[in-house]
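Hi, can you check this record?
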Amino acid sequence: MNEINEDLKKSKINFEIINKIRSGITANTYLAKYKKNKSIIKVFKKQKYKLITNQFQTNFIKEQLVNKKLFPEVTYLNRKEGILIYKYFEENSIKLSRSKIIELLGISLIKLHSIKSNKNIKTFEHQISAYNKILKSNKNTKLIEKANYLFKKIESYENGEKVFSHNDLNPTNILFSRKDIRFIDFEYSSMNSRFCDISRIVESFNLKDEEINVLLTSYGIKTNSSVLEIIKDWSLMNLYLDLIWAYVMNKVQKGSIKDNYISGLELKLDYKSNK
């Protein structure tokens, strides 16, 4: 625990570490006691490349997320030192049908996408551009070209509308407690298409056709062939991005992403792109 003690000592924070939850690519995460509350402490890692937007840490965005009950209550934030502390959100077994859970996800998602942004917030295109620069001499330039082509295709029929997007809504970043939902780990958030998050949920929860309709209806979108096509394209785009991200991480920190994870993504992408 020495690394967190050193980081937090600079900020003169009184805390008690219970245990380390995760050592991630972007941050170390700890379960702790802070101001007598069970809390989560995140210590963000310094990056050689500008990969992380962390736009949600601006007070303007953070306060909206907390006020809309989309993120746990923040009790300490030091952007300069890269330290975030928020109250632990206790997950409880949900005695709800799968259909009701999907409906609640749609309702929470539209609240997330209604977050107002400031003029300096980065876009998804900025993130892709940053990845492209890091991998410009990478052997997988064809993959990057295909991803860029797909992104331009998606942009062309979505009229360029952007919302505040999480961009990484997998099940580990969605917390449930009865009828309450919180989204966490906004490190890759940016302005983006609403269908990036929608397609992530469709993929992460393996939604069937009727369940996709429940999600879209609760979100306020009418299900039709055009919408389903956009979700399909974004599902493929997210897969491209996951693989490119893995290549980037291994270039930034060699061996940080396991080979079997990358090969699994490559196989999945090959299968999906040829369907």
In short: DSSP finds nine helices and nine strands in the chain. The two ends are 47 Å apart (CA to CA). The chain has a mean pLDDT of 88. The first strand starts at residue 15 and ends at 23.
